[in-house]
């Protein structure tokens, strides 16, 4: 009997040894392995403490700077015989834009030539009278009359030349050349060869220096307390989706536009690359800063999951932590937190949805 029991001892020992090898072991959450992401794959933004901002969006459009616009209208009737430029061309002051035949200008030019010939005769007569006056052959009256005749003719010629200059035209080859009164870009051009021109018509062309333009933004009554002169504005347009332009509100009208029922806020903008074209529809983002401070991050870093908001935070060891958050203030492109995110923490701002899904997949 003793011998039988002794034979069971080695068997039991083996069973106990095998059982101990498969005994469950508790694993803490901290010991669960997490995937480390290479820094080059993750783009982050360091959360910073900054003044809380509020922004609104105003619609509007680009307009000419009226101080840099010249509209040319003819004061006489005539016919355009040649057009030298096209819409959008850059022109220099004095450059010929078109040629016109006009009976009125031709008549003025003819009068000028007749008066110049009469003036030449009057000058010779005056010279002769002066000589006779010195020899005491002519009287004071004769001298005064000769001088008066000369001055009258000079005055008439100057008057005609002033009129021709007012028309901004000069006579060459039987036609009158219409010249650019200033340098700039041809932004309106309403003439072509054969066009009949009448005095009082709409402007033949408009020239503007587009180096500076005005952005006119619409301010509705509900936004009056927000928008103020001197505020910074970021200008965006669908024509340039990847670009933005910065300006400052220089003036706000004090009278509502009767048709649109809005006040007009004016933003003067330098137009170095000529991208801001008059008539272009824009959106102006106006921002105001408060004295309150909070941790700020880009709004696009937020991740919506199961109707809750998260951000993805890169830890010092390059692991990623999904963290549920609740923003205290939401701006157009910024989120502000008083709690939940510490200054200096790295917030993932690129491919965060894909990375967030990967992290959730690891925890399952």
From TrEMBL:
PROSITE patterns: PROKAR_LIPOPROTEIN. Residues 212-287 form the CusB-like beta-barrel domain. The keyword Transport applies. One of its GO terms (biological process) is xenobiotic detoxification by transmembrane export across the plasma membrane. It holds the Pfam family RND-MFP_C. GO terms for molecular function: transmembrane transporter activity. Residues 74-209 form the CzcB-like barrel-sandwich hybrid domain. Residues 294-350 form the Multidrug resistance protein MdtA-like C-terminal permuted SH3 domain. SUPFAM superfamilies: HlyD-like secretion proteins. The keyword GTP-binding does not apply. Keywords: Coiled coil, Transport. Residues 105-163 form a coiled coil. InterPro entries: Beta-barrel_RND_2, BSH_CzcB-like, MacA_alpha-hairpin_sf, MdtA-like_C, MFP_Cation_Efflux, RND_pump_MFP. One of its GO terms (cellular component) is macrolide transmembrane transporter complex. Belongs to the membrane fusion protein (MFP) (TC 8.A.1) family. NCBIfam families: RND_mfp. This is Efflux RND transporter periplasmic adaptor subunit. It comes from Dyadobacter sediminis.
């Amino acid at each position: 009997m003793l011998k039988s029991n002794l034979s069971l001892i080695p068997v039991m020992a083996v069973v106990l040894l095998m059982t101990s090898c498969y005994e469950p072991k508790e694993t803490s959450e901290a010991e669960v392995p997490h995937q480390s992401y290479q820094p080059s794959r993750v783009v982050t933004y360091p959360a910073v403490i900054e003044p809380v901002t509020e922004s609104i969006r105003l619609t509007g459009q680009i307009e000419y700077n009226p101080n840099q616009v010249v509209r040319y209208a003819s004061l006489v009737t005539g016919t355009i015989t040649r057009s030298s430029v096209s819409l959008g061309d850059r022109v220099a002051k004095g450059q010929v834009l078109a040629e016109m035949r006009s009976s009125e200008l031709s008549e003025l030019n003819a009068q000028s030539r007749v008066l110049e010939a009469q003036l030449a005769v009057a000058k010779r007569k005056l010279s002769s009278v002066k000589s006779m006056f010195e020899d005491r052959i002519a009287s004071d009256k004769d001298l005064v009359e000769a001088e008066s005749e000369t001055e009258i003719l000079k005055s008439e010629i100057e008057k005609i030349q002033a009129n021709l200059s007012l028309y901004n035209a000069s006579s060459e080859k039987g036609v009158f050349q219409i010249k650019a009164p200033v340098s700039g870009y041809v932004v309106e051009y309403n003439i072509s060869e054969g066009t009949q021109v009448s005095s009082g018509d709409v402007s033949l062309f408009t020239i503007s220096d587009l180096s500076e333009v005005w952005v006119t933004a619409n301010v509705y009554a509900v936004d009056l307390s927000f928008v103020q002169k001197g505020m910074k504005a970021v200008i965006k347009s669908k024509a340039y989706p990847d670009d933005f332009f910065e300006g400052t509100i220089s003036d706000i009208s004090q009278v509502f536009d009767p048709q649109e029922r809005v006040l007009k806020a004016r933003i003067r903008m330098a137009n170095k690359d000529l991208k801001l074209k008059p008539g272009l529809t824009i959106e102006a983002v106006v921002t105001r800063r408060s004295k309150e401070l909070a941790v700020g991050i880009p709004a696009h870093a937020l991740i919506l999951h199961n109707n809750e908001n998260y951000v993805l935070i890169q830890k010092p060891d390059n692991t990623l932590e999904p963290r549920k958050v609740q923003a205290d203030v939401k701006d157009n492109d910024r989120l502000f937190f008083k709690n939940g995110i510490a200054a200096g923490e790295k917030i993932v701002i690129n491919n965060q949805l894909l990375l967030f899904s990967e992290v959730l997949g690891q925890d399952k």
